[in-house]
Inverse folding.
């Protein structure tokens, strides 16, 4: 434990919702943690770290590495059993804040079982991981959206079961792992898997305040803290002690808080109004509302408690797909609360709150007291009026216009319906980040071979180990009994799973594609592929070309939201500089290869293959260049109409890739064709 002074919770300016969400969890860990969404540099981590020092101390069995509670020791505890749990065994320590680094190994998170010692010495040696350290404390994951899939799975299992289970080749260890999960993420850098999203009880959006006076106060305090951390902390010590006492008092009050039928009706009505899945949302909202009531010293849950709880518990549960804007429509929330009716007359409402309500220990400015935080510049909010989908403004096909920005021939069609596209993948065996697209050597997956371990042994390959040991048994003096194993016998399993790729879309946005229905279909197709890429853990990028040039509409990112947004805004019209589009794509892929060499790219060119600017020779040269870099290319052929020129198929041949017709891109379209063929036969 470091003795360096932490920034005090009560010195934090603004961020009322985040503080409230954390305090709710401090009062009732059953609420299930907090996910903090927001841009970088908003001091999210400072707030989370500050919370930990407010939490009450925990009593643990002395010497137990798994933080057993002396009153109820974990029966499975690897350091146990702890018989009697006598008073002299107990020891009090501060609640821990354990940070899980995004790049942590599986062993670091779940703990490591020394399989070599188990096999060669016959002892179970278990080194506890972060899940054990976080038991009865806070597990903090900064940039939780960038966490590797296998870590997410471990985390989900532990969070769901309250235990961590490590098993290797039949040797297994199980221990309790219950913790307050707090994650932060910057949505611009990629979304969270829905299962993980659902694990967080509450979500909060944070943004740096735009209020100059408040910003000045933030800076002033930070400077004061940096100049003299201990002195700064001392100045807030009384306030901190008061907050900590308030948390303890609220915990004691919690069991006596009454959830009236009227309040429960409001909760279920609100959850129904926002169309959330399952009953988890209702439960979390109820728990949060009760914790809020305890915090505010309300004997019964009031409709204000319900409102605040819903505001924190529902935003991430009502989202139907990753393209929806975050946040909760507060007018609709109020409407639902009113309809459920009937605020009963005994509702204490905004009556006297505790001595320090959640918004109490704020600095000047007060952080807006949980009002509807405006989403700063959300570009999803409203489509630009000039490109409304209902405008009867089509561009006749192949009209050669020089559609500069704002040119008269532009349209921005809405995407058509999305569907599940067939799997496009990179051939061969990669070694990129785990995902769900192309075949690759991965830390999990099915076993495809065995090898001598490189460094610390991963998964043991038992048959290969036995084969290696068998011929040496006589030399090692084995007469009867068990096998005599040596370190040099051990063989490691080589596992094959799937990796995520970089899927770069190169989309023709020229006039020849601009007929409304066609562009709708094209956007629908690219959106489907984007959604698919999100589920397969790919990075995506978008290059578009029209008029005279190509542009990078979306640099490679894991954020499918950003991709969907750019696609929706994509305007069409003008000539077709196909060669420029290909060249720009090749350049982008070259840079990405330097940046992230193990992630294999897949280039998806969406075009009808007509080049009306730059010439056919340039297209052939650009295609050959792509082929020479070894990038796998798929051309989605958008050509239709009575006269087909076959440009897309030719392009696919030049790049060494394959072509697929737009109409055959859907996974069901293929099986449909097969069915059709069978029936015809
Ligand atoms: Zn124990």
């Amino acid at each position: 434990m470091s003795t360096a002074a932490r920034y005090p919770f009560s010195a934090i300016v603004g961020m009322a919702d985040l503080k409230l969400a954390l305090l709710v969890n401090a009062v009732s860990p059953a609420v299930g943690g907090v996910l903090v969404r927001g841009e970088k540099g908003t001091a999210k981590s400072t707030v989370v770290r500050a919370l930990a020092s407010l939490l009450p101390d925990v009593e643990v069995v002395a010497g137990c590495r798994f933080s057993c509670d002396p009153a109820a020791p974990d029966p499975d505890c690897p350091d146990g059993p702890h018989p009697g749990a006598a008073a002299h065994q107990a020891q009090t320590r501060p609640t821990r804040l354990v940070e899980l680094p995004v790049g942590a190994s599986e062993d670091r998170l779940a703990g490591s079982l020394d399989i070599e010692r188990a096999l060669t010495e016959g002892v179970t040696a278990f080194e506890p991981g972060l899940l054990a350290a976080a038991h009865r404390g806070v597990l903090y994951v900064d940039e939780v959206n960038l966490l590797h899939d296998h870590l997410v799975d471990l985390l989900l299992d532990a969070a769901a079961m309250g235990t961590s289970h490590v098993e290797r080749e039949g040797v297994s260890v199980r221990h309790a792992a219950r913790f307050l999960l707090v994650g932060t993420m910057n949505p611009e850098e990629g979304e969270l898997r829905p299962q993980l999203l659902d694990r967080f009880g509450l979500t909060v959006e944070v943004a740096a305040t735009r209020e100059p006076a408040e910003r000045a106060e933030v800076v002033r305090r930070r400077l004061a803290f940096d100049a003299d951390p201990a002195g700064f902390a001392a100045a807030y010590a009384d306030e901190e002690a008061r907050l900590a006492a308030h948390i303890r008092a609220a915990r004691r009050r919690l069991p006596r808080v009454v959830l009236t039928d009227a309040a429960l009706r409001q909760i279920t009505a609100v959850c129904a109004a926002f169309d959330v899945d399952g009953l988890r949302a209702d439960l979390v909202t109820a728990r949060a509302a009760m914790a809020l009531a305890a915090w505010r010293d309300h004997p019964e849950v009031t409709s204000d408690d319900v409102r605040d709880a819903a505001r924190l518990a529902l935003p991430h549960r009502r989202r139907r797909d990753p393209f929806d804007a975050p946040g909760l429509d507060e007018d609709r929330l109020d409407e639902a609360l009113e309809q459920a009716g009937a605020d009963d007359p005994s509702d204490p409402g905004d009556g006297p709150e505790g001595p320090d309500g959640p918004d109490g220990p704020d600095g000047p400015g007060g952080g807006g007291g949980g009002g509807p935080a405006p989403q700063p510049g959300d570009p999803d909010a409203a489509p630009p009026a000039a490109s409304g989908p209902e405008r009867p403004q089509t561009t006749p096909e192949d009209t050669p216009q020089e559609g500069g920005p704002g040119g008269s021939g532009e349209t921005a069609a809405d995407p058509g319906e999305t569907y599940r596209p067939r799997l496009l993948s990179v051939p061969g065996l990669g070694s990129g980040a785990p995902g769900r697209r192309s075949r690759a050597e991965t830390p999990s997956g099915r076993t495809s071979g065995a090898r001598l371990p490189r460094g610390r042994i991963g998964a043991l390959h038992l048959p290969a180990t036995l084969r290696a040991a068998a011929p040496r048994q006589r030399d090692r003096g084995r007469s009867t009994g068990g096998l005599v194993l040596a370190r040099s016998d051990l063989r490691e399993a080589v596992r094959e799973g799937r990796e995520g790729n970089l899927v770069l879309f190169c989309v023709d946005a020229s006039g020849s594609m601009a007929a409304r229905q066609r562009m709708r279909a094209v956007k629908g197709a690219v959106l489907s592929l984007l959604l698919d890429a999100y589920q397969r853990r790919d990075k995506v990028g978008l290059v578009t070309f029209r008029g005279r040039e190509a542009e990078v509409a979306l640099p490679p990112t894991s954020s499918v939201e950003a991709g969907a947004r750019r696609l929706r805004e994509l305007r069409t019209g003008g000539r077709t500089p196909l060669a420029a589009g290909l060249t720009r794509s090749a350049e982008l892929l070259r840079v990405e290869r330097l940046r992230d060499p193990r992630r294999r790219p897949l280039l998806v060119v969406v075009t009808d293959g007509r080049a009306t600017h730059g010439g056919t020779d340039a297209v052939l040269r650009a295609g050959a260049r792509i082929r020479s870099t070894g990038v796998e290319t798929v051309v989605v052929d958008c050509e239709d109409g009575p006269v087909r020129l076959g440009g897309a198929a030719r392009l696919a041949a030049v790049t060494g890739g394959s072509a697929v017709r737009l109409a055959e891109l859907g996974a069901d379209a293929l099986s449909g064709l097969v069915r059709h063929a069978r029936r015809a036969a």
